[in-house]
Amino acid sequence: RVRSQEEKSEPLQTASWVSSSIVFDNRRWACREAELRWTAPHHLIVLTEEGGTSHTSIRHEARSLYDGMDRPGALTFVPAGAE
C-alpha cells in the first residue's frame, strides 16, 4: 500500500542476470510525503541517490530492523519477508 502527496515518478527501468535471480530496478521517484506498507518477496537493496527521508522504518516479525533517516548515498537492506 502506498499513500503519497505530490508524487512524481519516471518509468521503471529493469535489468536481470543469472536467470532473473538478480534483478535491478531503477526509477526516479519523489514526493513531499509518503507512507509505504509493503512486504518484500525477495531480499532488496534500496539506494537513495538524491534527496532522502525524514523517517524510514523496516520491521520483520514485529521486530524493528531499522528506524532512522535515509540520506543521499544511503543503502538500505530489506530482508525477504520484512515490511
Describe the protein in words.
The protein is an all-beta fold and 83 residues long. It folds into two domains: 1-37, no CATH class; 39-83, no CATH class. It has no helices and ten strands. The protein has strands at 2-5, 8-9, 13-17, 22-26, 29-30, 33-36, 44-48, 56-60, 63-68, 74-78. The model has no long low-confidence stretch (mean pLDDT 79).
Order of helices and strands: EEEEEEEEEE
The share of residues in helices is under 10%
Coarse structural class: mainly beta
Low-confidence spans: pLDDT under 50, at least 5 residues?
A: none
The largest beta-sheet arranges its strands as 1-6
Write the topology of this structure.
Layout: E1 2-5, E2 8-9, E3 13-17, E4 22-26, E5 29-30, E6 33-36, E7 44-48, E8 56-60, E9 63-68, E10 74-78
Antiparallel strand pairs: 1-6, 2-5, 3-4, 7-10, 8-9
Question: What keyword list fits this structure?
Answer:
83 residues; mainly beta; 2 domains; two-stranded antiparallel sheet; 52% strand
TL;DR?
This protein has about 80 residues and is mainly β.
